[in-house]
């Protein structure tokens, strides 16, 4: 019985951390957008929407590349499953979160 279990270990799937990478980077971006909004309040600046928009764009593009690098590293260390072109579905959440970054940065400025 034990030998049958040991032979079937090759069929075990490794834990896939791809969703963790996919969601942790954009959540970190939301935190950074909030910190940006908070810093703008302290500086007494009047430009709310425009500055938040440009910061959101920068965050989206930079964090997208960070996300690609993190997911690639995760695949290399075998903590994430390689899916070929399907890996791209774990790369673009930071890019798609640009409107959220803008909203969080802007609202935080307005709220305080």
Descriptive overview:
Residues 1-12 have low confidence and may be disordered. Helix 2 packs parallel to helix 5 (98-111). The protein has helices at residues 2-7, 18-43, 49-76, 93-96, 98-111. With 112 residues, the chain is mainly α.
Considering the chains and any ligands shown, give keywords for the structure:
112 residues, mainly alpha, 5 helices, 70% helix, elongated
The largest sheet, given as strand count, sense and whether it forms a barrel, is:
none
Helix-strand category: mainly alpha
Number of strands: 0
Q: Please work out how many helical segments DSSP would assign.
A: 5
Termini Cα gap: 65 Å
- Radius of gyration in whole Å, from Cα? 20 Å
Mean pLDDT: 82
Low-confidence segments, given as residue ranges, are 1-12
Q: Please trace the helix and strand order, writing H or E for each element.
A: HHHHH
Helix content: 55-70%
Shape: elongated
Q: Which strand-content bin applies to the residues?
A: under 5%
Write a short abstract of this structure.
This protein is mostly helical and 112 residues long. Helix content is 70%, strand content 0%.
Give the topology, please.
Elements (H helix, E strand, L loop, with lengths): L1 H6 L10 H26 L5 H28 L16 H4 L1 H14 L1
Helix pairs in contact: 2-3, 2-5, 3-5
């Amino acid at each position: 019985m034990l030998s049958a279990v040991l032979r079937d270990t090759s069929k075990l799937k490794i834990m896939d951390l791809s969703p963790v990478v996919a969601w942790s980077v954009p959540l970190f971006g939301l935190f950074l957008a909030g910190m940006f909004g908070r810093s703008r309040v302290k500086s007494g600046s009047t430009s709310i929407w425009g500055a938040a928009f440009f910061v959101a764009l920068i965050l989206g593009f930079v964090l997208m590349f960070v996300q690609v690098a993190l997911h690639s590293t995760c695949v290399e260390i075998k903590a994430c499953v390689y899916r070929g072109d399907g890996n791209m579905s774990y790369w673009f959440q930071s890019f798609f979160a640009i409107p959220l970054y803008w909203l969080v940065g802007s609202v935080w400025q307005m709220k305080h």
